Structures are given as C-alpha cells and as structure tokens.
Amino acid sequence: MTMPTAPDPIDHGTPAAPAARQLLIDLAVMIVIGLVLALIGPFGTFAAPFAVRLVYWLGLSLGGYLCYRPIAGFVARLGPRLDLPDPPLWIAGCLIGTVPMTAIVWIVSQYPGPWRAPTLNGALVTYGSVLVIGAAVMALFYFINRGRMERATQGAGAPIAPADAPEMTVPEAAPARPRFLDRLPPRLGADLVALEMEDHYVRAHTRMGSDLILMRMRDAVAELDGVAGAQVHRSWWVARDAIERVTREGRAVRLHLAGGIEAPVSRAQAPVLEAAGWW
Description:
Layout: H1 16-40, H2 50-68, H3 70-82, H4 86-110, H5 120-155, E1 192-198, E2 201-206, E3 209-213, H6 217-222, E4 229-233, E5 236-239, E6 243-249, E7 252-257, E8 262-265, H7 269-275
Antiparallel strand pairs: 1-2, 1-5, 2-3, 4-5, 6-7, 7-8
Helix pairs in contact: 1-2, 2-4, 3-4, 4-5
C-alpha cells in the first residue's frame, strides 16, 4: 500500500536565511567596534575601568545599530519614490539617526545620576561627537554591503559544464539564454514580468511568483540581453509583454503588470517609453 506523501511546503520567496545571516554578521561587526572603542577609550572614557568601558561601548554600539540600521531601508524605499540619488539620502538619514543616538548617549552618560538637562552647547558637542562615529560606522557598513553585492554578482557566472560532458555545437541562429534567468529558482519558471529593487536585493517577479536575488539592479539589467523590456524607474525593470494597462495621474505614470504588480515610471523615462510605443 502506498502511503500518501505530504505536500511540499509553500515557498513564499522570503530570504529568511540570508537575512538572519546578515543580522548575525552585522551584530558581530558592532560587537567588534564596541570592543575596539572600549580598548581605546575615546571621549574621556579611558579613565573608567575596562569592564565599565566594555559594557558602556558595547551597549552604545548595539544602540547605534538600532538607530542607524534602518537608514538602508529608508534609502531603498524613499529614493525610488522621490527619484533621488542615494548619497544625499544616506547623509540625511545619518543626520536624522544621530538625534536619537545622541539622546541615548546622554542618558547613559548621566547614569547613575544626578540627572541634568543638557545645555545647547553641550547637546551640540555631543551630537557632533556621535555623528563622527556614526558616520564612520555607516561608511563601514556601506562598503561591506557593496562588497557583498559585487562578490555575489561576480561569483554567479555562467554554468560550468561537467568535464566528461560532450561538447555541444549551438547553431548560430539559436538565441543565447539571458544569464539572469539562470539565477531564478526553477519554481518561478523563466517568464519574467519585472525586477524590483529592495534594499540590497533585486526581487524578480515572474508569472509564477517572486524571489529575492542578492545583486544590484544595474547588474541584473545588464544580464537581460535579448529580453524585450526596459528599466522604467531607478528601482524597476519591466518586461514589455507583461504590461496589461497604463494609468496616468497628472504627470505620474504607472504600469499595471501581470499578476497585479504595479510599477512606477520615472518622469525622465515616460516620454522615452511613450515615443517607443509602450502606450
């Protein structure tokens, strides 16, 4: 008698393992930073015993992670909506994130009391000191994340055939398969609808679902040679045959795609796409 097998679990395309791994890496980096700061004892903390410095700087490092880490999501989401370059948004996010971090530093520095309200000059000096360290840490994370994306892009090259496999002759007329399609999990098929930038990932939408791939949008678009489509926005690439209708609200143009997906069109790209006959 054949026992029925349980159905395969549904994969919703959530990168739980990569996200958890990245969180552990981030926290490890912050712990190392806290340890280094405890060793050197900047801003007058060297006079305190090492154990006190260690608790103090580890606590501030982890508090700083909570204040500054959301900046990446802030840039990834707000930048495409406003069609702004990343550097000014990173600077603005760092300036904003330093405000709650300065408050944390002041509260910790007052322990165990007596509690005194900071003067304007004292608050500005503390803010400047926190901003220096916060900006340095954010720059470190920026280069770490950029390096991860570059390694992921370079490491996923064309598939290597087994050594004992016979050589196949491909007719010249046969179109080459776009390299990006080889990155998609088999469950998604190869009928690409759109690419959407999400933080340090690109979300690939197909007619069978979506999944996140660690790479930059420009690298993903470069691997789509032969697929009829265009990058309609800083954070969106769209397959032309996936467009079901186009709507306008003033100067804003949105593309309604297969599967209920909506993609914005940047103001710079709208006249180009209209001239090309996309709508």
